[in-house]
Amino acid sequence: MRIIKNGYLYQVTFMANVFPVNCYLVEEEEGLTLIDAALGFCAKGILQAAEKIGKPITKIILTHAHEDHVGALDAIKERLPEVPVYISTRDHRLMNGDRSLDSHEDSTPIKGGVPKKLKTRANVLLKEGDLVGSLTAIETPGHTPGSLSFLDLRTKALIAGDAFQTRGGVAVAGDVKPLFPFPAFGTWSKRTALASAKKLVSYEPKLLAVGHGEMIENPATIMEQAIQHLEKKIG
Question: What's the CA gap between 184 and 165, in Å, rounded?
Fold first, then answer.
C-alpha cells in the first residue's frame, strides 16, 4: 500500500507497480470521506491509512459498482457498520445485479465485473449536483451508465473514478491503452464516456485523480488531448 497526499486528498494505492488500484480519502473537518473501496484484500490497508491520517471514516462514496471499486466494501462495513454508503441512483441498479438499459442509453452491453456476493447496499443515492461534505457529484456515464465523479469545491481536485485513466497513458474511458487496457475493456459506452470527459474538462480541475494511475496537477491540457485522441478513433 502507498499513500500520497495532495491538499485534502489522500491517494491510497494497492499493487502500484503491477496493477494499480486507487481509492481516496478526502479530509473534512469532522472526518474522512472514503471514495471507492478497491479490491477485497484492501480493507485492512484502507483502515490503516485512515488511522495514519488520524481521523475516522465517516462516509463511503462509490464512483461506480465495478468489483475493483467496491471489493473491500463488505469488510469495511463490518468494521464501520454505522458509516453511510453513497452511490448514484443509476449504478445502484448495477450494484443489485441489474444490467438492463434505459431507452435513451447506448444499447451496447454493460461490461466489467460486479460482485455477485456483495452484501452491502447504498444508504444514499446521488444525482447531479448533490453535495457530500466538500464534494459535489457530477454524473459522468460512460464507463458504466451511472458512473459519478466528484469535485472538491475547496481545491478543484477532481476524483473521476474510471472516467479517465492515467496508467499506461492518459485516456478517456473506452480508449484502449496497450500498456494498461483493462479500464477500456470494462467500459460500456465510448461515445457516452467521451461526452462525460468533455463535461469534466469544463470544470477546469486543478488536480485529476483516477482509479488507475498517478494523480496529475493542472490536467486540462492533457485531458483535452485524450479527448481528441478518442474522438479521432470513433469519428
Answer: 9
